[in-house]
């Protein structure tokens, strides 16, 4: 069974086939779009001094070019996550935010650049190998096995281990008590918020050093959104680094350590979350004023 029930079919195909072949040329329209973006301004920090993580680097992405088949979506993306850091990526629809995370997790066509995780070059690796290094990924959609029970989903999360991690299961149940209550229930019958908790719980079974979350608040009722962000804070506070893509940009920037604004597949701004949140240009252009 696949380790990643929610990886889109086409991505799975690409992760095997396209990676083998040389990257295709980006379509002309794509080049024009990027040129237009480049004229706006170079990537900059919203504050006078660029803040880079001052703790040990965990994920370092450099000059990443990636996409789907021959379509290049990312153009020289740089991204850092330090040990224990909480980093968010925000930006307009279609900017390539999800593609960054999928690329780190080996689900796109890798076209160039470098992806180093915890000292290992993971560029071009498949997800099944990447998870062994301590990188967890929770996609936005179809992130649980709907036909399996809650408990079976959590067990699947640990399938690569020789010995079942009872302590991790206990931790997940402690963090998300509703999952313990509903452990015999089919995942497909859970509410949106409960499914999201299950998807996170499944990823936490391997005790990842970095947990990547793609729009964890998407589709949740407004009163559950805060609760979801609180839970993510809790995961981070217990030492797991977080890389998160969020449409709810203001709240995400408020809670994170550092943020990146991605536009047209390229870095546009990067800085501490607070600085981005209060930067006039970032506010006007990307945070709705
Ligand atoms: N599986 C795919 N095959 C081909 N193109 C894709 C695929 N997934 C995404 N794209 C394209 O890649 C570009 C970036 O998409 P991506 O989902 O990364 O953007 P995003 O910033 O996460 O946007 P959103 O906030 O709308 O989810 C878009 O033009 C999108 O149409």
UniProtKB/TrEMBL annotation:
The entry's keywords: Amino-acid transport, ATP-binding, Nucleotide-binding, Transport
Biased composition (Acidic residues): 1-11
Domain ABC transporter: 59-289
SMART domains: AAA
Example of a GO MF term: ATP binding
GO terms of biological process kind: L-amino acid transport
Region (Disordered), start-end ranges: 1-58
Biased composition (Basic and acidic residues): 27-44
Family that this chain belongs to: Belongs to the ABC transporter superfamily.
The name this protein goes by in its record: ATP-binding cassette domain-containing protein
